[in-house]
Write a structure and sequence with these properties.
The protein is α+β, with helices and mostly antiparallel strands. It has 2 domains: about 60 residues, Orthogonal Bundle (434 Repressor (Amino-terminal Domain)); about 220 residues, Gcn5-related N-acetyltransferase (GNAT) (Aminopeptidase, 3-Layer(aba) Sandwich), CATH 3.40.630.30. Helices cover about 45% and strands about 20% of the residues. The chain has a 7-stranded mixed sheet with strand order 1-2-3-4-5-7-6. A hairpin with a 3-residue loop joins strand 6 and strand 7. The longest helix has 17 residues. The radius of gyration is 20 Å and the shape is globular. The two termini are about 20 Å apart.
């Protein structure tokens, strides 16, 4: 979907005439929409011209304000349909900004076609034990063996309906993983404040699918940037599809390499705690509304962009 299609869809869905939307936008942000008229709005809706990115973000903020939804007007789209609207090349641009070397390796990808990379929920892949074992090894390696998490923890969490444990496969080989927990808000807050460690999570701390909660990124690893981008495309699509049930997005890390990736996807630093005698665990969080309305995300989901055909 391009921005002009989105703009008209939102206007029509909320029963605004062009004149009414022009007036509403002007009152919402005089600085950005001073001089806006129906002729300009009509050109935006037809894709003849396109508002600059800061105006696109302001328009989304306006619809956020009247709907209380992080990315308004997407409620009728399924997760699979939203995947198709996201520019994979745009996602890869965001990923590449991090210059991550430990979480995103440089496994040769020139022969990989994007259409040959498939992202699945872990439970559907038939390789649960193998993937869980790999993730446990990565967790111990990346986190200096301080989390205390074991394969049975990851396997148990993978089966809970609200969590999303994605893997990316090429052929029959696993190329990357992205594990995301959906926590009840009280439990998410305890995790993000460093008051509770992941090992202490119990079933009562998790929010079910459709239940209000917040998204906590638990694990990520990819063999190259194409795999990384496909995993995050699926994650963003999940967040948009489930936006009415997700309040915040958060993550914790003690890896410098991971901090670069977190900064590239615009999750701001929140706080930190000292683990043991020498390790600092840093926490990052933001509201879903903020996460989905950043300029680079809007470009990726709604704006004209060079999305090359792989």
């Amino acid at each position: 979907m391009q921005f002009h299609e989105y703009l008209k869809m939102c206007r029509v869905r909320h029963a605004f005439t062009q004149e009414e939307l022009v007036q509403a936008l002007y009152l919402f942000n005089v600085e950005h929409f001073s001089g806006l008229d129906t002729t300009t709005l009509s050109k935006w809706e037809r894709g003849v011209t396109q508002p600059r990115i800061f105006k696109q973000v302001s328009i989304i903020h306006y619809f956020q304000s009247i709907t209380q939804e992080p990315l308004p007007c997407f409620e009728q789209y399924s997760e699979e349909e939203i995947v198709q609207t996201i520019c994979e090349a745009g996602m890869r641009n965001i990923i590449e900004e991090s210059k991550s070397k430990k979480l995103i390796l440089d496994f040769p990808s020139s022969m990989m076609e994007i259409d040959d990379l498939k992202v699945y929920p872990l439970g559907n892949a038939g390789t649960v034990d193998k993937i869980v074992k790999l993730n446990t090894y990565l967790d111990k390696n990346f986190n200096n063996d301080l989390t205390g998490l074991e394969p049975e923890d990851f396997k148990k969490w993978a089966l809970l309906s609200g969590n999303r444990f994605f893997i990316c496969e090429y052929g029959e080989e696993s190329m990357g993983l992205l594990f995301v927990l959906k926590l009840k808000q009280e439990s998410f807050d305890k995790i993000i404040h460093g008051e509770m460690m992941e090992k202490s999570l119990q079933e009562k701390d998790f929010a079910a699918q459709g239940e209000k909660g917040s998204s906590y990124i638990l694990s990520f690893f990819a063999l190259n940037d194409k795999v990384a981008s496909m995993l995050f495309v699926q994650y963003y699509a999940y967040l948009v599809a489930e936006q009415r049930a997700i309040h915040e997005v958060g993550v914790a890390t003690m890896m410098e390499d991971a901090k670069k990736l977190i900064e590239s996807i615009d999750i701001p630093y929140y706080t930190s705690v000292t683990i043991g005698e020498a390790f600092e665990l840093q926490f990052y969080k933001t509201t879903l509304s903020h996460f989905l309305s950043r300029p680079k995300v809007i470009r990726m989901i709604l704006s004209e962009q060079d999305c090359e055909v792989e």
